[in-house]
Amino acid sequence: MAGVLGVLLVLFGLLLPARLPRIVAVLLMVLGLGWFSDFEMFREFIRKPHVITGYIYGNGVEVATTEQYKKDGYLKRVAFRTGDDGADLFRHACRSCHTISGYTPPKSAFDGADREFIASIIKAAHLLRGNMPPFLGTAVEAAKIAEHLHKQMDHRPLAEIYGLQGAGLGRKSYEVRCGKCHVPGKESDKSKAFADQSASDLIGMVLAMLAGIACLLSLLDYLKAFMRTPAIWALTVGVVLSLGALHFFFKKKFWPSGLMLFVSMLTMVYARRTVRLLKLEGACDPSSLPIVPQWSPFILFLICFVVMLAMLVYMFRLFFRSPKPQP
């Protein structure tokens, strides 16, 4: 969308401004603001739990003062106290990212929960999904924030709050009580990978597998010829590497998983090219077709590709060099 907006703005805003209808100008402005807000939201989330990577957390705590906060707590650093320590602590440690029921609210997670559960979640904030900064206060301060939040939560049981029973209630309970840290199938136990999938999900996977097998068998005579080429070994290696990549992915070893997946993709490309040449044999030889290079699109693609790689390297360096939050 950004590319389309850029072309339209250059075309009508600079080259043909007199031909830009007002309604189109308003539409471009709305689209531009929408894209900008989307970009800001994306930028906000990729840098979490920091505002400035490695220097300051999202709640304004400097990384260099982490040990001091652990020792002294938050309250000693609250300049203006209202007399309600729980509310003051929430504003100082949490309010920059959370409101009670508006922006990234804790209400949906804490409705129906007791004070002890809320306090335990606060103290383990750095373990939650979503890259939250660690809670650096004392256990007493966590209890005060929990008390402040508990007063504003719905105290009814989850079954009454959501009007659910049976499996539906169990699924919702897991979502709001466990799902903030845990995702079925994401831990080292790969046997649980299908635990949270519905019947339609499993049927879709089985149908996709059957479609792949049917496509392979549809090659018929070409399949026999394919099995006499080195590509059959490449295909076998690719399948093995794909399974290995899946294994390392569940082990959370992303570098070997990504490398194995990349090599398996190369073997699949080679196998696909071999099948295509076998099917075209006698009818068309792609290597005999004249090639007329178009250098300007290639140069533009190359520039964009290099810029993209540079951005990826920069983001990966930021990610792997950022200090891990201390529990």
Number of domains: 3
Which residues form runs of ≥5 with pLDDT under 50?
Answer: 187-196
Shape: elongated
Structural class: mainly alpha
Mean pLDDT: 77
Query: Would you tell me which CATH topology of the largest domain applies?
Result: Cytochrome Bc1 Complex, Chain D, domain 2
What does this protein look like?
By secondary structure, the chain is mainly alpha-helical. The protein folds into three domains: 2-46; 56-178, Orthogonal Bundle (Cytochrome Bc1 Complex, Chain D, domain 2); 220-280. Helix content is 60%, strand content 2%. The chain has 14 helices and two strands. The chain has helices at 2-15, 22-46, 66-72, 85-93, 107-110, 115-123, 139-150, 158-162, 166-178, 199-217, 221-226, 231-250, 254-280, 295-321; strands spanning 50-52, 56-57. The chain has a two-stranded antiparallel ribbon with strand order 1-2. The protein is elongated, with a radius of gyration of 28 Å. The model is unreliable at 187-196 (pLDDT under 50).
Helix-strand blueprint:
Layout: H1 2-15, H2 22-46, E1 50-52, E2 56-57, H3 66-72, H4 85-93, H5 107-110, H6 115-123, H7 139-150, H8 158-162, H9 166-178, H10 199-217, H11 221-226, H12 231-250, H13 254-280, H14 295-321
Antiparallel strand pairs: 1-2
